[in-house]
Design a protein that fits this description.
The chain is of the alpha/beta class. The chain is built from 10 helices and 14 strands. The mean pLDDT is 94.
Length: 370
């Protein structure tokens, strides 16, 4: 059994841990900024293909105290890099340091690279590595004088599902959109609304979730090219994931935006994701928003001062939302905002709040329901 790490922004740990347990991962534990879990290579492939909330999946090669360059070098050299990195594989190094005596990332990068090379020289019987083979990205994380050495298995971040090659300004990450759908408790028999849909990410992620379509089903991963993992594992996990998809007969999404160009992009993205049949698109001003029936699940990411509007415009829009998002039995509203004054301007206290990050912007998901 191997140990894997999911690095994540604060606020996502619980969702990712719950998701991994549902995938039958072992020894799942959430820490600040990351989730650890155990399993074989099948779980590694499953997590990459099926995770809606994770940014990437990494192998934890080892951890040790690193208060000096000597400790960093010797600790790195002692790890079994040859178990994963072959004679021709590429193994660049990147990382970060927080609250540690070794604060120079560039120097740490050079030390880690040298240590891995020295280890592989002895194990592979080589003095020089051409590094022309498959990528094995090494990541080091120094936090409070403790080093974690990892190998990235995902390649491109897992939020890159492949359906959104062209994004509008300040796009919402697919992983965060999926998290909002889960926090809103979106169900396969719900009608989902996003009246400021932009490039359509929320409604697309909602449709994928309702139909239980794995988000990574049609994209490649770095570890697929590794010699140490049988390609049959990836094929079997893709077949397993595809077999879990189901028609979401009771699900419908209604996506609107005042910007016609944004809607055109959203339609293209939905087509690439294969969920067009679940989504109704229409150009409309949010000021005229109305549910099509008495019930509905509204999830939206309105533009706010740090993204597209100035603060006065953002506050005015928040007040509009407070007027058009009317409470009622069977209705729920989930709104992502960075404003500390959101509830006051909106006009009602949220039933629940959840801290999240939109990129590097600290936000709150405000949930309203009866």
């Amino acid at each position: 059994m191997f140990t894997y790490v999911v690095p994540c922004l604060l606020g996502m740990e619980g969702l990712i841990a719950e998701e991994l347990r549902g995938m039958e991962a072992r020894d799942v534990r959430a820490e600040n900024g990351r989730v650890l879990f155990g399993g074989d290579v099948s779980i590694l492939a499953r997590a990459n293909i099926c995770s809606r909330f994770a940014e990437r999946i990494q192998i934890l090669v080892g951890e040790f105290p690193a208060r000096s360059f000597d400790e960093l070098f010797e600790g790195t050299k002692a790890l079994p890099w040859e178990d994963w990195i072959g004679r021709r594989n590429a193994f660049p190094v990147k990382g970060y340091s927080i609250d540690s005596a070794l604060f120079s990332v560039r120097d740490c990068q050079a030390i880690v690279k040298k240590a891995v090379v020295e280890r592989l020289k002895g194990r592979h019987g080589m003095d020089w590595f051409e590094e022309t083979g498959p990528l094995h990205q090494i990541q080091f994380a120094l936090f409070k004088d403790r080093a974690s050495l990892l190998l990235d298995t995902s390649g491109t971040g897992l939020h890159k599902r492949g359906y959104r090659p062209a994004a509008r300004e300040a796009p919402l990450k697919e992983t965060l959109a999926a998290a909002l759908c889960r926090l809103a408790r979106l169900q396969p028999n719900h009608t989902l609304y996003d009246p400021m849909c932009g490039s359509g990410t929320i409604v697309i992620e909602g449709a994928l979730m309702a139909a239980n379509i794995a988000p990574g089903l049609h994209r490649p991963f770095a570890a697929e090219r590794w010699d140490g993992i049988d390609r049959r594992v990836w094929r079997e996990e893709r077949e397993r994931a595809a077999g879990l998809a189901r028609p979401a007969e009771g699900f419908q999404a209604v996506a609107s935006d005042i910007d016609g160009e944004a809607l055109a992009v959203a339609r293209e993205n939905a087509a690439r994701a294969g969920v067009t049949k679940y989504i109704q698109f229409g150009q409309a001003d949010v000021r005229n928003f109305r549910l099509q029936g008495e019930r509905g699940t509204v999830i939206t990411n309105p533009p706010y001062g740090e993204r597209l509007l100035d603060l006065a415009q953002a506050d005015e829009l928040t007040a509009v939302l407070g007027r058009v998002f009317q409470p009622g039995r069977g209705r729920s509203y989930t709104i992502l905002s960075s404003s500390e004054e959101f509830e006051r301007i909106f006009g009602r206290r949220a039933s629940k709040r959840r801290k999240l990050y939109n990129g590097m912007i600290k936000c709150q998901a405000y949930l309203y329901y009866d």
